[in-house]
Amino acid sequence: MTKAVWAVDKGHSSLEFTVKHMMMSKVKGVFTEFDATVEADVNDLTDAKIEFTVDLSSIDTRKEDRDNHLRSADFFDVENYPNMTFVATNIKKTDENEYDVTGDLSIHGVTKPVTFEVTVEGVHKDPWGNEVAGFSGEGKLNRKEFGLVWNAALETGGVLVGEDVKINIELEAHKQA
């Protein structure tokens, strides 16, 4: 297979995150608006071009007050930093259909390298003859490294919001003609 452009099918894709709340439970959320550019040979991603742009105002944690707080200057400050971006800079094959995709992640005006473990889940033809590929990815970042430092102390000790954020990505992409 040769290198091709793959368009993300947002209706069959998701960008989710998990963060500790009150040091004992986890809050999950999604970003509903994102776009990706993937130019790759799905049989060998090592020279792929991968770029993501996420509209941070599209955050959804199923609680409007929390979402509005996350959009505020205390966290993402979407008025000044409306997007989160990721541009792959190094892709290393780690196993059959598995890769470490390292790139520059930019949030809140701060850019740092982050690595995602990515799996090519498969490539098939849909009922209309179109080539479709599936990708899964996961990674972790420390939100404070990106200037997202707001927190509140708990009366019993500890803090309200955890520092580590786990990210899960599920992509379905259609090969472009």
UniProtKB/TrEMBL annotation:
SMART domains: YceI. InterPro entries: Lipid/polyisoprenoid-bd_YceI, TTHA0802/YceI-like_sf. It comes from the Bacteria. Residues 5-174 form the Lipid/polyisoprenoid-binding YceI-like domain. Gene3D superfamilies: Lipid/polyisoprenoid-binding, YceI-like (2.40.128.110). Belongs to the UPF0312 family. This is YceI family protein. It comes from Ornithinibacillus xuwenensis.
